[in-house]
UniProtKB/TrEMBL annotation:
InterPro entries: Acyl-CoA_Oxase/DH_mid-dom, Acyl-CoA_Oxase/DH_mid-dom_sf, AcylCo_DH-like_C, AcylCo_DH/oxidase_C, AcylCoA_DH/ox_N, AcylCoA_DH/ox_N_sf, AcylCoA_DH/oxidase_NM_dom_sf, Mycobact_Acyl-CoA_DH. GO terms for molecular function: flavin adenine dinucleotide binding; oxidoreductase activity, acting on the CH-CH group of donors. This is Alkylation response protein AidB-like acyl-CoA dehydrogenase. Its cofactor is FAD. Keywords: FAD, Flavoprotein, Oxidoreductase. Gene3D superfamilies: Acyl-CoA dehydrogenase/oxidase, N-terminal domain, Butyryl-CoA Dehydrogenase, subunit A, domain 2, Butyryl-CoA Dehydrogenase, subunit A, domain 3. The lineage of its organism: Bacteria, Bacillati, Actinomycetota, Actinomycetes, Streptosporangiales. It comes from Actinomadura viridis. Residues 130-222 form the Acyl-CoA oxidase/dehydrogenase middle domain. Residues 236-385 form the Acyl-CoA dehydrogenase/oxidase C-terminal domain. GO terms for cellular component: plasma membrane. Belongs to the acyl-CoA dehydrogenase family. Residues 6-124 form the Acyl-CoA dehydrogenase/oxidase N-terminal domain.
Length: 396
């Protein structure tokens, strides 16, 4: 990226780098490296305080227009910010879902009143969001959503269940895909509602994962309410808006994610040198292929950023999800093979995992959440390559 930067971009990089170096000190000196996939339980209050500190200095939502509290950063500058944030070892963001998923969705599809109401608390990190998509029978097959919402007086009444809801315990609100047209099926009759989480009628049950942590949750809506104006787009447009949100999820933040991937790969290579596993030609070949895969991943991500820059991203964003999810899962498997038999033993009692064990276990989810590999391949085949649609039950 640096080879193609303008003088303005280089100045921006220097500004971001200097601010992070100056501010990841004092009360936040111990925040470096905290949180992240499989470790969202770590130091949540410290990470929240850090992010509000960032907000006070104008370093949240940097790519948003200035009129909505952002910096109006160019696409290149957004990439720079995410890269420098990752290179500094800054803690995992707690407002990611609001800033990178819901915010861009409201900028693209929300009303002026919704933007005025919901965007400032995201910028200030006063309200945290979660995503209400998956259900027990509608995970990767999102179009099978059965959670219902009915007009009831001056608002909506929501009934149903969501699952695998990241950070639901900490969230103040949830954007929920639900069925608002009785008798509808598949993509039709869905709507996109903005639902308060802290109310009667919302129950959250943490799901204990292989890592022993509980980032994911079940959420039960039993007559929960949302206001009449808490719908993004018109009733029945929920599928279109939900797909745009998924596209934003695969935007510029993935470039910072890849800095973390590079660190993990470098760590696995160093581990292979220490254990002597690097002398195994098969493992050495896999390490080389992993390095090549990371380079390809980065080039593909930069290439597909044009869709984000142009507004709502297109189905091409599924390529990035398919590539990085598969690569990261394979890196976890490679780390365990480098460790050998010692990787089968917990670091301590009762279930103390080291970084490589946690990487292996949590990365099993990478090819499932945010759309499984199978779904991504269908999207690429049908909506990017124009191949015939898969025949599904009920559509013959």
């Amino acid at each position: 990226m640096e080879r193609n930067e303008t003088p303005e971009d280089r100045a921006f990089r220097a500004e971001v780098r200097a601010w992070l170096e100056d501010n990841l000190s004092g009360e936040f000196s111990g925040a470096r490296g905290l949180g992240g996939p499989g470790r969202e339980h770590e130091a949540f209050e410290i990470r929240l305080a850090w992010e509000r500190h960032m907000a006070a200095a104008g370093w949240t939502c940097v790519g948003w227009p200035e009129e909505y509290g952002g910096r109006g950063a160019t696409l290149a500058q957004q990439v720079i910010f995410n890269e420098e944030y990752a290179l500094a070892g800054a803690p995992a963001r707690v407002g990611h879902i609001g800033e990178n998923l819901l915010g861009p969705t409201l900028l693209a599809f929300g009303t002026p009143e919704q933007r005025e109401r919901f965007l400032p608390p995201i910028v200030a990190v006063r309200e945290l969001w979660c995503q209400g998509y998956s259900e027990p029978d509608a995970g990767s097959d999102l179009a099978n959503v059965q959670t219902r919402a009915e007009r009831d007086g001056d608002g909506w009444r929501i009934t149903g269940q969501k699952v695998w809801t990241s950070l639901a315990l900490e969230a103040d609100r949830c954007f929920v895909v639900c069925r608002t047209e009785p008798g509808s099926s598949r993509h039709r009759g869905l709507s996109y509602l903005l639902v308060p989480m802290r109310q009667d009628g919302v129950e959250i049950r943490p799901i204990v994962q292989l890592t022993g942590t509980s980032e994911f949750n079940e959420v039960f809506f039993d007559g929960a309410r949302a206001g009449a104006d808490d719908i993004v787009g018109a009733p029945g447009e929920g599928w279109k808006i939900a797909m745009a949100t998924l596209g934003f999820e695969r935007g510029v933040a993935t470039l910072g994610q890849q800095v973390g991937f590079r660190r993990e790969l470098e760590g696995v290579i160093a581990l292979a040198r220490r254990t002597g596993a690097i002398d195994d030609p098969l493992l050495r070949d896999r390490l080389t292929r992993s390095w090549m895969g990371l380079e390809i991943m980065r080039l593909n991500a930069v290439r597909t950023m044009a869709g984000v820059a142009a507004g709502a991203p297109g189905p091409e964003s599924s390529i990035s999800k398919l590539v990085w999810g598969t690569w990261h899962r394979e890196l976890g498997e490679l780390a365990m093979d480098v460790l050998g038999a010692s990787g089968l033993v917990a670091a301590g009692e009762p279930y103390d995992l080291d970084d490589w064990q946690r990487l292996f276990l949590f990365s099993r989810a990478d090819t499932i959440y945010a759309g499984s590999n199978e779904i991504q391949r269908n999207i690429i085949a049908e909506r990017v390559l124009g191949l015939p649609r898969e025949t599904r039950e009920g559509t013959r």
